[in-house]
Structure formats: structure tokens, C-alpha cells
Design brief:
alpha+beta, Acetylcholine Binding Protein, Chain: A, 6-stranded mixed beta sheet, 5 helices, disordered N terminus
């Protein structure tokens, strides 16, 4: 993840490290730590964060309402967030702590479309907001969950929605869960199907990495 083009995770790690040293580090030492984290070998070593994601496709009576994203983070990033935000050290996040996590370690992603890219019938859909953010620790893993509103009405014609989640800077590596990547919710009134494909037209990181897309098709069932 990045903040204004600057590696977000290395800077956060630097300051977390300094807090754990009980403020015994001089300003000069602080400068050296940040400089080392921004040095070329570290910055070129991608990715820094690993996320396993799954998508819930949510319908109502009219069609697609949006998608729920579930991100499971790697042990290293989990420890960073726990160290910074589990203020009472009870290995869980209370409401106030979740609010702070959202403000300081999630909301900045709006600049990057929350690493989520959607097309509706071939046309790009701009994400305006996310809703129902939550953060939890389950089996010592950090989990983010959030809802992305994306209204697509359903009728007798097939509608197609392409969904992909990836970080074009490749500071974060986002991969679909292998066991259950897609879940449906309230889909009974619609005929729907999906497939998962690699989109080589959207390659990034010097054309070495190719995003994985969920290609959803649906239409209203005949009554």
C-alpha cells in the first residue's frame, strides 16, 4: 500500500519499531531507519503485503446491489496492525479501535479505488464509497471486510460485470481464495454464472503481473 506514492507499510513499520524502543532513539537514528527502508533494495523487493481475498456477490429483487470483499492478511502485516491498534492488548478489536484502523489504515485506499476495478457491460465503474467496514482478528489473522455499492439492474438481457482486485504498484499482492473465491447472496431471482480469468491486457509491474478477473453474467429468471 502506498500513501501519496510513498511506500506505506515501510514507513508504518519504521514508526512502530521506534515506538517499541520507548522513544530512546535519537532523531538522527530515526532518519537512518526511514532512509534504509526507502533504499533501493528494499523498495524493489515487492510485494510487502499479502492478501487473500474472497468476494460475495449481493443481489436484491432488482439486480446486483454490490460486492462484499473479505481480505485476509499475512502474519507480518497482521502483527503491525495489532501492535499499532490493539490498545488494550486483548487480541481483538473493539469498536473504537476499528474506527481508528479504518481512518488510519484503510480509508487512504480511496485514492487507489480500494484496489478494486469494476466494469459494467464493458464500461468502467468508478467506486464512490465503501460501506460496513470491519476489522477482526480470527485465528491470529487480520481480516478486513467491506461492502462496495454497485447497482446493476437485471432484466431479460444478460448483464456482464467484471471484478478484479489488485494493487497496480504491487506493494500488495492480492490473490483469490482457492477454496471459495465467490459467494452469492440473494440470487434466487436471477440466472447467474461466473468464470475466473487472467486479463493480460491489464498487466502491471513492468508487464510481469496479470490481474485475475471475476466475469459475472446474470439475467432475471423467467416467471
Amino acid at each position: 500500500m502506498t500513501e501519496n506514492g510513498i511506500p506505506f507499510i515501510p514507513v508504518q513499520l519504521a514508526f512502530s519499531f521506534m515506538r517499541n524502543m520507548n522513544n530512546k532513539i535519537s532523531l538522527y537514528s530515526i532518519f537512518i531507519v526511514i532512509l534504509l527502508l526507502w533504499s533501493t533494495p528494499f523498495c524493489l523487493a515487492h510485494p510487502h503485503v499479502f492478501i487473500q481475498n474472497s468476494i460475495t456477490i449481493v443481489f436484491d429483487d432488482q439486480g446486483l446491489v454490490g460486492i462484499k470483499a473479505k481480505w485476509i492478511f499475512d502474519e507480518f502485516f497482521t502483527n503491525v496492525i495489532v501492535m499499532d491498534y490493539d490498545q488494550n492488548n486483548n487480541n481483538q478489536f473493539e469498536h473504537a479501535e476499528i474506527t481508528t484502523i479504518q481512518a488510519e489504515a484503510f480509508d487512504n485506499l480511496h485514492k487507489f479505488d480500494y484496489f478494486t476495478f469494476i466494469k459494467i457491460d464493458g464500461q468502467p465503474f468508478k467506486i464512490q464509497q465503501v460501506q460496513s467496514f470491519s476489522a477482526a482478528l480470527i485465528d491470529d489473522q487480520l481480516i478486513y471486510m467491506f461492502f462496495i455499492p454497485c447497482s446493476v439492474s437485471g432484466d431479460s438481457m444478460i448483464r456482464e460485470v467484471n471484478i478484479s482486485q489488485y494493487d497496480p504498484t504491487y506493494y500488495s499482492n492480492i490473490t483469490l481464495d482457492k477454496k471459495q473465491p465467490i459467494i452469492y447472496e440473494n440470487e434466487k431471482g436471477f440466472e447467474s454464472s461466473y468464470r475466473i480469468a487472467v486479463n493480460k491486457k491489464k498487466s502491471y509491474y513492468s508487464d510481469q503481473i496479470h490481474p485475475v478477473e471475476i466475469i459475472l453474467q446474470f439475467k432475471k429468471k423467467h416467471e
